[in-house]
Amino acid sequence: AQSVTQLGSHVSVSEGALVLLRCNYSSSVPPYLFWYVQYPNQGLQLLLKYTSAATLVKGINGFEAEFKKSETSFHLTKPSAHMSDAAEYFCAVSEVTGGGNKLTFGTGTQLKVEL
Amino acid sequence: DTAVSQTPKYLVTQMGNDKSIKCEQNLGHDTMYWYKQDSKKFLKIMFSYNNKELIINETVPNRFSPKSPDKAHLNLHINSLELGDSAVYFCASSPGTQETQYFGPGTRLLVL
């Protein structure tokens, strides 16, 4: 079974600083990988996804992630944090099973942005 | 014009009751899902339907019964509610079985 590990359940950065949220995956086949963001009391919104095309994936709100097969990683970055980036971020891997497709999520990283 | 909608948004009920959560998507997608997010924010898939047919059924107690009357709707009925059922339940949909999933706003269930 595929799995995802997110290192750091809480990350705190200053406004304007680099954001780096870590995600490592385990998969026996080339994975589809996703980053979702969840704002307080809201649903999940797709930030970006990797589907075996370009290894550097650009998403919404200035976020990007790089797929590194050798490191089995898919870390999320943003050059300059904004207060509005404060949210819970989830990395997920897509697994095809029995004709269906399910997302297996990491445990999430709470991003705090301070002035 | 919400893409994936759920009702109700909040649900507070007593242990032992039966309740239903409804989900509708207007994206024309073929596949719909139910996920459960626990108090530690861990998300886990429960069910998936493709064209009204059940294709994923994780190890969920049989007190939980999904129903898909048509491609645009996937409802979740829960019998004999237990304290441990308290969670946020998210509905999602995707164009096909291997496409990006789009999530609804969630239903916050509290069992007292």
Structure, described:
The complex is a heterodimer of chains A (115) and B (112). Chain A has 115 residues and is mostly beta strands. Chain A has no helices and twelve strands. In chain A, the strands form three sheets. In chain A, strands 2, 5, 6, 10, 11 and 12 form a six-stranded mixed β-sheet that branches. The mean pLDDT of chain A is 92. With 112 residues, chain B is mainly β. In chain B, 0% of the residues lie in helices and 56% in strands. Chain B has strands spanning 4-7, 10-13, 19-25, 31-37, 43-50, 53-57, 64-70, 73-78, 87-94, 102-103, 107-111. Chain B starts with a strand and ends with a strand. The mean pLDDT of chain B is 92.
Order of helices and strands of chain A: EEEEEEEEEEEE
Mean pLDDT of chain A: 92
What is the overall shape of chain B?
A: globular
Helix content of chain A: under 10%
Oligomer: heterodimer
First-residue to last-residue Cα separation of chain B? 34 Å
Which descriptors would you attach to this protein?
heterodimer, A: 115 residues, mainly beta, six-stranded mixed sheet, B: seven-stranded mixed sheet, four-stranded antiparallel sheet, globular
Short description:
The complex is a heterodimer of chains A (115) and B (112). Chain A has 115 residues and is mainly β.
Topology:
The complex is a heterodimer of chains A (115) and B (112).
Chain A: E1 3-5, E2 10-14, E3 19-21, E4 24-26, E5 32-38, E6 44-50, E7 56-58, E8 64-68, E9 73-78, E10 87-97, E11 100-105, E12 109-114
Parallel strand pairs in A: 2-12
Antiparallel strand pairs in A: 1-4, 3-9, 5-6, 5-10, 7-8, 8-9, 10-11, 10-12
Chain B: E1 4-7, E2 10-13, E3 19-25, E4 31-37, E5 43-50, E6 53-57, E7 64-70, E8 73-78, E9 87-94, E10 102-103, E11 107-111
